[in-house]
Amino acid sequence: MTSYLDIPKPVRSGIVIVDPLRGTPQRVIVMQFNPETLERSLAPQAAGAEQGDRTEALRLKGPAIETWKLIAEIDATDQPELPAPNGIHPQLAMLEMLIQAPSARIRENQALAAAGTLEITPVESPLTLFTWGRNRVLPVRLTELSITEDTFDVDLNPIRATVSLGLRVLSSSDLPAGHRGAEMFLAHLAQKERFAGTAAGRLDTLGLTGI
Questions:
Q1: Which of 10, 11, 91, 203 could form a disulfide with 208 if both were Cys (CB 3.0 to 4.6 A apart)?
Q2: Residues 141-185: tens digit of each pLDDT
Q3: What is the DSSP letter of 195?
Q4: Nearest-angstrom CA–CA distance, 7 and 17
């Protein structure tokens, strides 16, 4: 008889905020439910494509530009054993802070501007990793965040919401050489090459005998 201990624990997708220098996780956002679908789009960076240069038709300037879209659900009523005095405000706030500059840094920049500083360095966000199983862990930038809150408690705290996420994969063309995120992308790309090498086809399956 199979016991509950024999059932594999499901792997959750999620987002990990990493210190880019030390590589230590700062925050982990676990998807309460894995999205049912994952939409990925890749656009090649072709050399000379805009000018129509035939000598450059097969050349690539760098890694493809890859974007991901997914829809996640957050539901406090699905976990009644966990206290939620603020509803799902904490979970939503963690996602929103991926695209918000810290308030302390904003105040600091305001003080610098008031003091007459001519050039203020934009706020650099931490390294964000999107994880979809152990075979896909890669650096991303959140490009789209849409939240639909559809259920509330008596204090109008949201207790159920649907979140649409748009992510752009950060490649070695987007990050400085040697950056931890760039190295992670190159490792991810090398893994894709290994996967592709195991999926060989045969010419006779296409009705061809040789090229």
A1: 203
A2: 999 999 999 999 999 999 999 999 999 999 999 999 888 999 999
A3: H
A4: 30
